[in-house]
Design a protein that fits this description.
Number of helices of chain B: 3
Structural class of chain B: alpha+beta
Shape of chain A: globular
Structural class of chain A: alpha+beta
Largest sheet of chain B: 6 strands, antiparallel
Largest interface: A-B, 17 and 13 residues
Mean pLDDT of chain B: 96
Low-confidence stretches of chain A: none
Radius of gyration of chain A: 20 Å
Radius of gyration of chain B: 13 Å
Number of helices of chain A: 8
Strand content of chain A: 25-35%
Mean pLDDT of chain A: 95
Order of helices and strands of chain B: EEEHEEEEEHEH
Oligomer: heterodimer
Number of strands of chain B: 9
Strand order of the largest sheet of chain A: 10-11-12-9-3-13
Order of helices and strands of chain A: HEEHEEHEEEHEEHEEEHEHHEEEEEE
């Protein structure tokens, strides 16, 4: 039996704002308020706010914390300055993805890991299993909440709500409000300009209301999924798995193979020299079809060569879009493929990632 | 939610308008409102046989694909040609321009098992 779904502290406020909820990673979360397409367009053209309180906040500190995380995480933490944020992976010995996460460097030996909701327990157990002396893990997921405020209008929303300048991409600031216990970061999962804000749950309703009052519109996980898929940002559990490496997912730029010894490195080096078994391809439908969804077969010349890991109708282009692991020689832009949707084949083509290039994205 | 008085309803949120031995079938205002953002309709084939309670069509919203069940047995005689290019008609006009398909009823007695507008209104609260 599965446990009953959990609710974030914003559940009641969101229900009264019209949220329709679904179960996501054990949480009862808004999938949409008005319509997924409307909310998607709001984020692409104005500003939307997502409750991401279900995500996990794990603090890592202590004299050995830097060396410990350098060993546990795939990206090079030495390249992340204090005040910076870095996308990275927790890998298993086979180089497969346990979780993808963002590490925020709060201090020289002080870090916040923002991890996926469904992976909090597994991530913490994996870190504890490898823990060394002089490192402290503090999982505050149960007492912290978070919002993602995204869209070309996000900087204005930040100014109105927090009386300051929105942090630049991949940086963060501790807000004076509430003695620095509120962290605002220039990160997100939509491709648009914007920020994510992490805070003790007791502040959740105040912050939610001030962001709405500043003009952000409530958005649900439905739009979050179409927005991230247009950008080809992977969703762990769908596009990433313990049996696929970040190299196969096309995310090698976030893996520091030149960094000495981290968990999974040997397997990645071996895979690289042997040749990748598959590559995650971006696929766009080229004829009118039902929207592609996860787990649809992908064919080339009548033979199944893979299956979709994610799929949706792209609200920005009106085309069906999907991702699938394909043999590397087929995962090249221009390759014609077919998607099997309920027994019928529809034409599609592999294209260069991402599917969409937002107007408001700031240079890295 | 709009529940017109001249229709019969299935518990699974389809409606049927009966005219002689022909039935026009669609989904209710309540159903389209729950699905929202309908982006694709996969109708049955003209000539196909559909059975009461069995999946006959698929309506896809942005978030999910949903089976649509035939409220009665019948032979499909027409599908709504407008939905191929304008699936959102199911959202904007669920009882009129957004109808899904028409059947020739082969077991009209099944209509008695469907819900009255009053009973369907009670069901959806």
């Amino acid at each position: 039996m599965s446990e009953p779904a959990r609710r974030t502290v914003l559940y009641d406020l969101q229900k009264s704002a019209g949220a329709r909820c679904i179960n996501f990673g054990g949480w009862e979360m808004p999938v949409q308020f008005t319509s997924i397409i409307d909310e998607h367009q709001t984020v692409r053209t104005a500003c939307g706010v997502f409750d991401i309180s279900h995500m996990g906040e794990v603090f890592v500190s202590g004299p050995a914390s830097f060396d410990f995380l350098q060993q546990m995480l795939a990206n090079d933490l030495a390249k992340c300055p204090v005040g910076g944020a870095q996308y990275t992976f927790l890998l298993n010995e086979r180089g497969g993805v346990i979780d993808d996460l963002i590490v925020y460097r709060l201090g020289d030996r002080d870090f916040l890991l923002l991890v996926n909701a469904a992976k909090i327990a597994e991530d913490v157990a994996w870190l504890e299993q490898h823990l060394v002396p002089e490192v402290k893990l503090d999982n505050r997921s149960a007492t912290m909440s978070a919002l993602a405020v995204q869209g070309p209008d996000a900087a204005r929303v930040f100014r109105v709500a927090f009386d300051g300048e929105m942090p630049a991409r991949n940086t963060f600031v501790a807000l004076e409000k509430c003695r620095g216990a509120v962290i605002a970061a220039g990160t997100g999962y939509t491709g648009e300009a914007g920020f994510e804000i992490f805070f003790p749950s007791m502040l959740a309703s105040d912050i939610w209301q001030s962001v709405l009052a500043a003009g952000a519109k409530p958005c649900g996980l439905g739009a979050r999924d179409t927005l991230r898929l247009e950008m080809c940002y992977p969703l762990n559990g769908s596009d990433l798995s313990p049996d696929r490496t970040p190299l196969e997912a096309g995310l090698g730029m976030f893996v520091a193979l030149d960094k000495p010894g981290f968990l999974g490195r040997e397997a990645l080096l071996a895979q690289k020299s042997a040749g990748l078994p598959s590559r995650l391809a971006a696929i766009r439908m080229t004829e009118k079809s039902p929207p592609p969804r996860a787990h649809y077969p992908v064919l080339v010349d009548g033979a199944v060569v893979g299956e979709t890991t994610s799929g949706a109708l792209s609200p920005s282009s009106g085309d069906g879009i999907a991702m699938a692991y394909l043999p590397p020689h087929l995962a090249t832009p221009g390759q014609a493929v077919q998607i099997d949707i309920r027994g019928r084949l529809f034409a599609a083509v592999v294209e260069k990632k991402p599917f969409h290039r937002p107007n408001s994205k700031r240079p890295a | 939610m709009n529940v017109p008085d001249n229709l019969k309803y299935a518990e699974s949120h389809e409606w049927i308008l009966v005219d002689g031995d022909l039935g026009t079938i669609g989904i209710t205002d309540h159903a389209q409102n729950e699905l929202t953002d309908i982006v694709y309709v996969d109708p049955p084939k003209v000539g196909a046989t559909v059975s009461a309670g069995q999946a006959a069509a698929v309506v896809e919203s942005v978030k999910a694909a949903s089976d649509i069940y035939a409220p009665v047995d019948g032979e499909v005689v027409e599908v709504n040609p407008a939905l191929a290019d304008s699936p959102a008609l199911v959202n904007t006009s669920p009882y009129d321009e957004g109808w899904l398909f028409k059947v020739r009823l082969t077991n009209p007695a099944q209509l008695d098992a469907l819900k009255s507008p009053e009973d369907y209104r009670t069901q959806i609260g």
